[in-house]
């Protein structure tokens, strides 16, 4: 089962995942687009812990996973480029503990989240503007007029089956040409939400 959810607070996200586990749905993996994939499982109490860290190379990432595994935390989902890592305790005796108890570790998590979200947000916006600007300058498309996205001469004067065939034939190419900026805008929105999450954490006085 897949669920689309966006959170601006780590604790609320951890609570949500724990509630899903108690209802028989265990987290299997997470996508940066906010898609949670759950696997049907016997209801159980699982206290998830979320960490956000990026790494310069795979060796450092592997060392990080090994360090937490030795400390009693099992990785559920999280990759080298993802940033987000979801853990569950291997021993129920410390399932209510935090991944890191020191302030510096918490600060590193928030600072990494802020930096990456802002960089990604700005780059996505810049790329979207450059794409649209180039397209508009070349009179290829107009943002607010989808008809201009189709380049078949006389398409909108056609009728009947001829129009339908030409329209359906070109539509995949239109999607290919116009999708990138919309995807970039979507990514910008997602990164903006993640930046809001970091800001919320900072306002709570923990970073």
From TrEMBL:
The chain crosses the membrane at residues 117-135, 182-200. Keywords: Membrane, Transmembrane, Transmembrane helix. It comes from the Bacteria. Pfam families: DUF2812. This is DUF2812 domain-containing protein.
């Amino acid at each position: 089962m897949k669920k689309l959810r966006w959170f601006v607070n780590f604790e609320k996200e951890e609570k949500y995942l724990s509630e899903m586990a108690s209802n028989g749905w265990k987290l299997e993996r997470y996508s940066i687009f906010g898609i949670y994939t759950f696997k049907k499982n016997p209801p159980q109490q699982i206290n998830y812990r979320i960490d956000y860290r990026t790494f310069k190379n795979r060796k450092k990432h592997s060392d990080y996973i090994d360090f937490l595994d030795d400390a009693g935390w099992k990785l559920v989902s999280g990759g080298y480029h993802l940033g987000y890592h979801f853990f569950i305790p291997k021993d129920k005796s410390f399932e209510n503990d935090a991944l890191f108890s020191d302030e510096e570790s918490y600060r590193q998590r928030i600072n990494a989240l802020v930096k990456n979200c802002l960089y990604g947000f700005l780059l996505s916006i810049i790329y979207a503007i450059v794409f649209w600007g180039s397209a508009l300058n070349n009179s290829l498309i107009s943002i607010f007029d989808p008809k201009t996205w189709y380049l078949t001469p006389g398409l909108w004067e056609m009728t009947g089956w001829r129009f339908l065939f030409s329209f359906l034939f070109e539509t995949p190419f239109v999607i290919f040409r116009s999708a990138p900026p919309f995807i970039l805008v979507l990514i910008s929105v997602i990164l903006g939400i993640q930046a809001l999450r970091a800001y919320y954490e900072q306002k709570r006085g923990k970073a």
